[in-house]
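Inputs:
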Amino acid sequence: MASQYSSFPGMDDILPGEIEKWQWLEEKTRTAFACWGFNEIRTPLLEPTELFTRSIGETTDIVHKEMYTFKDRGDRNMTLRPEMTASVARAVIQNGLLKTNKFLKLFYTGAMFRAERPQAGRKRQFHQIGAELVNLTREDDPYYADWLIVRVLINFLDYLKIKNLKFRINDLTLINGEQAELVRSKLRKYFESHKSKLDPDSVYRLDKNVLRIFDSKIETTRALIRDVPWNDIAPFSEEFLKLNKLLQEGFEGNVSFEIDRTLVRGLDYYTGVVFEVASSTLGAQDALAGGGRYDRLYEELGSTSTPCTGFSIGMERLLMVLEKNNPTAQSQMSTKSIYFASIFPNDNHAAFLKTVGASRSLTESGFRVIVAEPSPKLGDHLKRASKLGASYTVIRGDQELTEKKWTVKNMMTGDQASIPEGGLLNYLMQNTKELELP
RNA sequence: GUGGCCAUAGCUCAACUUGGUUAGAGCACAAGAUUGUGGAUCUUGGGGUUGCGGGUUCAAUUCCCGUUGGCCACCCCA
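Outputs:
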């Protein structure tokens, strides 16, 4: 507390005790995306500022008031990435990945930066899990990629056993596509004709960006939004309705489905189907994941036309939901937690190294291992082992050293066994089997 | 960027309303009762410039102002 330096607002340390949850989530992420055939990609935290102004959109809030932008000593304009999609596109173009692959399935996890006022579920340095489908198209099914990306997202959240999710979907093809200007002017005209019922913020948005009116939380404005004559302004296509039917049928009970015409995402590059997943267990910042189709981004960045879709998930928010929703999910870890107690004299370094060697082979087999510093007091070791929630304690002292054995103590029952060197892994595998959840 | 609430030990909080000797408790930490057998109990101990700066006062953790930070909401988004 009396520390001279502290981290910047909204940029938190992740400490031991908390980090295990992150590692657990990252592991699950790798497994889940591998199953769908996605490959991981990592890109730099810093990118040319213009990459984001061009892709996300000059007038969006993210670009004009939330980016960390500065010049380096070579006078280059650099920005800490506020999101990942533009970086992935840049990397794909720069490395010519589409020249050797017809399409790409990519996923990532990493830190993003936005200079917003911190709040529940909102940090300045935050972390996302995301996926992008690049150039994946099917002639017979123009919405195939949209279907797939949503399936991957819902499947992933289901894999983590997250409950009570609200899925919303919309189609921006007309709103952001070729006829964007026409649609927007129709919308403007509609709201203009009811100007007296609009709140002041929305009157301002009328000229600046009509679509942002949909964000309003004022009831009179919301009533107007509900009555927008969508069939005249931007009717849905047959294919989009078919996609919805297909998606809805695949959802299980814990995800609700809703078509939401007011779902207008804040990044300019979206051109088609967009979607969002919200959780009621979060606070005001309830969006857990969001994404959609962006078919013009690659052209915007100087490459050839490349249809894409993707999503990103807020890791902090995901962990918050997991905590409330599924507190037992991460507890599997402790059932395979092994404490190593070395009770030979402090100066027996060779014996200690042997302990570390044994702990490595256990770690490689998926055990969570705690190696304590050597101390002759077994009582202290056992006290710590039980405090740290170890299911087994492996004891090694002068007796074991001369007999070339490990003493293994079951912390639940108190039973002890003497295991020959080399038989430790097998013994623990056998005995922790039943503890594992299916 | 705007607004509301808050700031005391590593953590959770007392004491502040009505200013008054060395700012307390629980948890956690350390040592011992117990030199190779844990979770309990008991004893003891370490730990604080009361976020920071200024003002009022004989006297400020307490009252006032500023500042920094935190939480929550707006805004926006994951």
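Remarks. The mean pLDDT of chain A is 89. Residues 19-172+234-325 of chain A form a domain with the BirA Bifunctional Protein; domain 2 fold (CATH 3.30.930.10).
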